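Field: COMPLEX_INPUT
Field: COMPONENT_COUNT = four
Field: RESIDUE_TOTAL = 148
Field: MODE = joint
Values follow.
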Amino acid sequence: MDIRKQVGLNVQRVRRTRGWSQEELAFQSGLHRTYISGIERGTRNPTVTVLKELADALAVPPRTLLDLGSPSGG
Amino acid sequence: MDIRKQVGLNVQRVRRTRGWSQEELAFQSGLHRTYISGIERGTRNPTVTVLKELADALAVPPRTLLDLGSPSGG
DNA sequence: TTGTGACTCTTAGTCCGTG
DNA sequence: TCACGGACTAAGAGTCACA
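Field: COMPLEX_OUTPUT
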């Protein structure tokens, strides 16, 4: 499994547990809407600082977005 | 704690448990020695794919390099 | 054995628009 | 509400000479 794909899946999963649109997550994280889209589709290769910003916005530990297991973002 | 600093500390810690020099890790990961140096000092902002290559070379799960806790690398 | 500034090339990340 | 492409600016990837 490509790590980018894994990150994308995790971001999307946690985002949906929040009931957020991509645009809402973009607003919360300070990143751009189309960039969030690219990350979730696994076509972008985010840096660790972006990973952190995403994790902060989603209120989960950064490692959650790298893991295969169940995200703790209930 | 800056996430880049945290990654650097973790890379360095795991590398040393392997008894490897930066040059050895550079060889194992296919990255440049000076680039490893920059990451360990927290002056570089690696992407998730680089994080994965490092984790692979060090034989630890990628999330290990983001965590604050004790690395599981040996 | 590692730190560092500077460099080239590629890509991260933004913004606009279409379907 | 989201996927996707083009164009753009800032920054990361990757390398070297020197200390």
